[in-house]
Amino acid sequence: RAKTIGFIGLGAMGREMATNLLSKTFQASNDAELTFVVHDTVDQSTTRFLTASTSLFPGRHILPASSPAGVASLASTVITMVPSSPQVKEVYMSESGILEGLKSLGNPSDPSNSTLCIDCTTLDPLVAVQVADQIKRAVTSDVGAFDMVDAPVSGGTVGARAGTLSFMVGSDLHQSFTQAEHTLLKMGSRAIHCGKNGNGLIAKIANNLLLGISMLATSEAMLLGTVHGLSPQILAHIINTSTGKCWSSEVNNPCPGALHGTDKSPPAERDYEGGFAAKLQAKDLGLALSAAQQKGVPTPLGMLATNIYKALGENPDFMNRDFSVAFKALSSAVGK
Ligand code: NAD
Question: What is the interface pTM, i.e. ipTM, of the complex?
């Protein structure tokens, strides 16, 4: 088990992350016992991953598992990357989940059974803490042999492919953070220990609250200027050299044409294909509002933004497009 890594959830982010992890792991060592085991509920995703990775590393051990329990029974490090709280509960707590796989190992004080689960999903921090608590105590009430950290990511599918993601890690034990960091740096360029379990997710949803609002603000500003006849390129250049500059204006500008002449090619140039889906942004803002409500934090802008992304996330024309599609939705009000 010590030489086996498991990966569950081979979607837009997961397949890129798993490819980098597998490549860097196999490139770093010729140990014939090194094994990579994967699982996804969609068989096609698993098959596609296996075909691509075995052609990259012929002869190395790359296997499918029929369930998360199967992954946990084989691997000492398990990474999960699924949509949100319901799927994390299913992957970890269902009858064929990771918890059952760990229980089947038996004696947690046997070092060969020790397992670290690294969940990179963006989900409700409270659910993440509850699931981690059950994993830590999978067999006995002693914490140590089995551990789980939350490690949500920033950087999107582009960062996932390039291996430049930032991970925000919530881990009660510093030792588990250090162990997780070793794996995470094969998929990203930084991993930051944010404190106790759940704190990685609080950092992630606070960032996405700001991101969701800044994208709407950028959309309004770009629309205001261009409807009055300004060139999108000139307006973006002014904003990006002035005080309004932010990631949404500089890297992921929502107005087509705004970043022409730069090295950036945001989803707005491809009718908002790819990128970070509007429905996922709606989900993350929902998580942020619920975390804010738990502590009585006022979020007047967050509430407005959540309603807007919820509407986009329920509209079949916009739900799977990059969240910068908010610009297109607003533009329709002025007949653009
Ligand atoms: P996705 O929907 O493309 O991929 C999720 C994968 O999980 C799918 O392949 C799905 O089949 C699989 N899955 C679902 N339930 C499962 C289960 N019970 N067992 C095994 N596999 C299961 O989503 P994504 O874009 O890869 O996002 C994953 C997570 O990363 C989300 O929490 C998202 O908010 C977060 N995130 C996404 C981006 C982005 O740009 N896409 C950026 C940062 C963070």
Answer: 0.99
